[in-house]
Design brief:
alpha/beta, globular, 15-stranded parallel sheet, seven-stranded mixed sheet, single chain, 29 strands, Rossmann fold
Length: 820
């Protein structure tokens, strides 16, 4: 309930620091005074954090409010925040529109005087407040004690659950002969996926069941997709190419025939809806041999709703905690292993509410910036992987990261992962997080709390008015845009992260630009604009802009000269061959992502360097001149894509100007690749490089003598057709810091040698494939840090040597595809 106010206080600090606009002198003092008052109130809010949390939970549960005075004060604070944001937004927007600063200053001075008086009154009311009864907090602590955990314990831990694991294994291995479902349900933050995974990987299960499959519970459930996943897990790889070309019914018949003589276990993680059971029954045979399906349930309401919503088909026999809940679903045995301490018979309402309360209090224990970042995850579809690159840019644009640094944003995400609030799905070579997701135990809270505290309004979640919410999340349904008139014109963020690629109606676009002139974030995801949208240049406060405009070929001056507050410009489906000179005035720009972009030559006058720009992907090589790259002094990530051979004279000598460059990807797109001549020895790479990737460069000379001299290089990827030679030679003591090496599709590579002391820190080696490579360098096995070696389609001679290698497990040698 206090999130918006505390975020507003932080915003005032940014305004005073000049991050949003250059303030006229007359406006500085009243804003300083207002900021001082908000800091005092923020300090008081911290002291009453538990009371505020209890008040929110009472409102969410439609229960009696125990402290009406606190309710009144919080309502006044929220109204004050809403009005104050409107004043500051309007003032800054007027300055951005280059209206008279003197008249703007007079207007804001009068408005701020009124706000000053209001917050003084609020402070006086606050001094008379007393803490409410901490009954609910005591109940949470008692609940934790009875459950045998502490609030500081990691929710992902499964330590100390040996008895429950034994019970789960009994349910899987014993019981009725017919195909049965065993469900794991939790009320106190157990990592159900880890718990199920421990059973799935246990020796008991592996010896008892003939085959196994692990299926993610992607919602909405799709029978065809789920069937494909099960087939890929269970069927022999030699038959997959033949089977996957069949239609749904034929694939189902093939799977049934294959499983009829086998006892199988299918795990479906993170189930949100009972309809998944109908799909399971349809695609899996019941061969009366104790085959099992193990599912993890996301929330208790799933169980309690069975009895209420489907009385004819579901019979739920509630039993006290200590044994499994027994049910049938359309005659199908349904056993629920419940981890918690609440008896369903006596406290059915508490059984539903306690998990949400418990998780909310854990969320409240986070530092404020981390709590903002976590709650903001509700803008993403719950079951999809989240791109960390996009996430960091959104956090920064929203003002959640104090120093606007991606490194700080990444640190925040790592802390959320360490606390069990977020899961890391994929990591890039080198360890940085590539995608993440929301664990199932947190989704019910993220589904409700951000809307209830008016932090983010999601019309598909909450049918109530979102008039005071500053962020609109139209993530699921494009139809929500029909009701644009119902939303607050002071909106800060408009997000539509749906993967749908529909075309936007021009009328809807006009509404967006006409109504929401104070937007800071506009993300329309995959929704398609037919042409460059008029009116966008009037959104002066935009920090983050993501649009899908395939027809766009040039960036007009009106866009670049007006949107000077942009941090992120993301148009991944636009291929820009002309950019106006005004690009060089966008000194706040940090992140530039297109299908391809060509930058203009620097105009010389009235423009400086783009010192904040740290990411460009991909840049056309024709604009990689010393003059252009030299004016991007803090660029850290760069992808260059185009005819590298044609522009080699420019590119090879210009890269050294990027003294802060850490990641470089070179992708050649020559129309006549075999005739192109890319001479790597001519390239002057900056010594700051830690990640380097080549693709389709068709190098004739061995690249290792040049690249092994880069002192900080940690990841090197020589991808498809990057080198057409037959020999790689790594000299002695070369690659002193290399940790990851990918050699991909080097069709003619037959010999590879490594000198003494080379690659001393190598951890991961991936060869995929190198058809003529018959042996590995002997020095490779002397690298003690090597713990992952994936080799795809090795030659028979090499395959046999790797199978017989004594330290196979220590080096992490894996041959692919499995079974060769």
């Amino acid at each position: 309930m206090d999130i918006s106010f505390r975020l507003f206080s932080e915003r005032l600090r940014r305004v005073l620091a000049g991050e949003e606009v250059t303030l006229p002198d007359a406006a500085k003092l009243p804003i300083q005074n207002l900021h001082a008052e908000t800091e005092i109130v923020t300090s008081w809010l911290s002291e009453f954090q538990d009371d505020i949390s209890c008040l929110l939970l009472q409102k969410m549960g439609h229960r009696e409010i125990k402290n009406p005075d606190l309710t009144t004060v919080m309502d006044e604070i929220n109204c004050f925040t809403y009005e104050s944001e409107k004043v500051i937004d309007t003032f800054i927007n007027n300055i951005s529109e280059q209206k008279s600063q003197s008249s703007c200053s007079e207007d804001i001075f009068d408005a701020l005087q009124g706000l000053q008086s209001r917050i003084t009154d609020i402070k006086q009311r606050m001094q008379q407040l007393k803490h409410m009864d901490s009954e609910i907090i005591d109940r949470i602590k008692t609940f934790e004690a009875e459950a045998g955990i502490s609030s500081s314990s990691k929710s992902r831990d499964t330590v100390g659950l040996d008895d429950r694991m034994e019970e789960l294994l009994d349910l899987l291995i014993e019981g009725p002969p017919q195909l049965s479902v065993v469900a794991i349900l939790d009320s106190i933050g157990l990592d159900k996926a880890a718990f199920a995974g421990e059973a799935y990987n246990s020796s008991y299960v592996k010896h008892y069941f003939d085959c196994h499959a692990w299926v993610p519970g992607t919602y909405p459930y799709d029978a065809d997709q789920m069937l494909d996943i099960v087939i890929k897990f269970l069927m022999p790889s030699s038959r997959l190419s033949e089977i996957m070309d069949k239609n749904y019914e034929m694939k189902k018949i093939i799977l049934h025939e294959y499983l009829m003589t086998k006892r199988y276990l299918i795990v479906i993680d993170d189930v949100w809806n009972i309809e998944v059971c109908d799909i399971i029954r349809e695609i899996l045979p019941d061969n009366q041999n104790r085959s099992r399906v193990l599912i993890t349930l996301t929330e208790i309401k799933m169980v309690t709703s069975f009895q209420l919503e489907d009385r004819e088909n579901i019979r739920l026999d509630l039993v006290p905690t200590g044994g499994p809940l027994r049910a049938t679903y359309k005659g199908w045995p349904f056993l629920i292993l419940y981890h918690g301490s609440i008896s369903f018979e006596e406290n059915i309402e508490e059984a539903v509410e306690i998990p949400l309360v418990f998780r909310y209090f854990k969320c409240c224990s986070l530092p404020f910036c981390l709590k903002l970042c976590f709650l903001y995850l509700s803008v993403f579809p719950a079951h999809l992987e989240i791109s960390t690159r996009q996430l960091y840019q959104l956090w920064i644009a929203e003002g959640f990261i104090p120093d606007n640094s991606e490194a700080t944003a990444e640190n925040y995400l790592e802390q959320l992962i360490k606390g069990g609030f977020v899961e890391a799905n994929k990591r890039k070579a080198g360890g940085t997080i590539n995608t993440c997701s929301i664990p199932g135990r947190w989704r019910p809270m993220l589904f409700t709390v951000p809307s209830d505290v008016e932090f983010i309004f999601s019309p598909f979640v909450d049918g109530k008015s979102g008039k005071k919410a500053k962020r609109l999340n139209a993530v699921e349904r494009w139809d929500d845009f029909v009701c644009l008139d119902d939303y607050d014109s002071q909106l800060h963020s408009f997000l539509c992260c749906s993967p749908e690629s529909r075309h936007i109606d021009p009328i809807d676009w006009e509404k967006i630009c006409g109504m929401f002139k104070l937007l800071r974030v506009l993300d329309l995801g995959s929704l398609v604009l037919i042409q460059y949208p008029s009116g966008i240049e009037n959104l002066f406060l935009l920090r983050y802009l993501k649009l899908n405009i395939p027809s766009l070929k040039s960036l007009p001056s009106s866009l670049l000269s007006n949107l000077l507050n942009l941090y992120t410009l993301d148009m991944p489906f636009s291929y820009i061959d002309h950019t106006a000179d005004e690009f060089w005035k966008m000194n706040k720009l940090r992140h530039l992502n297109f299908g391809s972009i060509t930058l203009p030559a620097h105009p010389g006058k009235y423009c400086g360097s783009l010192e904040n720009l740290n990411f460009i992907s991909p840049l056309h090589p024709c604009c990689c001149t010393e003059d252009i790259l030299g004016r991007l002094p803090n660029l850290q990530n760069l992808r260059i894509q185009g005819d590298l051979s044609y522009d080699q004279s420019l590119l090879s000598k210009s890269l050294c100007r990027l003294s802060c460059l850490e990641s470089l990807k070179l992708a050649n797109e020559s129309k006549m690749p075999r005739l192109s001549k890319i001479v790597l020895a001519e390239y002057l790479f900056p010594h700051s490089l830690t990640h380097l990737s080549f693709s389709n460069t068709d190098l004739m000379d061995d690249p290792m003598p040049t690249l092994e001299k880069l002192p900080l290089l940690q990841v090197l990827k020589l991808k498809q057709n990057s080198y057409s030679g037959g020999k790689l030679t790594c000299g002695s003591d070369g690659f002193p810091n290399l940790k990851v090496l990918h050699l991909k599709s080097m069709l003619w590579l037959g010999e590879w040698t490594i000198g003494i002391g080379a690659m001393p820190k190598l951890e991961c080696l991936i060869i995929n494939p190198c058809a003529y490579l018959k042996k590995m360098p002997e020095q490779l096995w002397g690298i003690k840090s090597l713990n992952k070696f994936d080799c795809w389609w090795p030659q028979p001679e090499l395959r046999q040597k790797l199978r017989e290698f004594e330290d196979k497990e220590q080096c992490g040698i894996q041959l692919y595809p499995c079974g060769i």
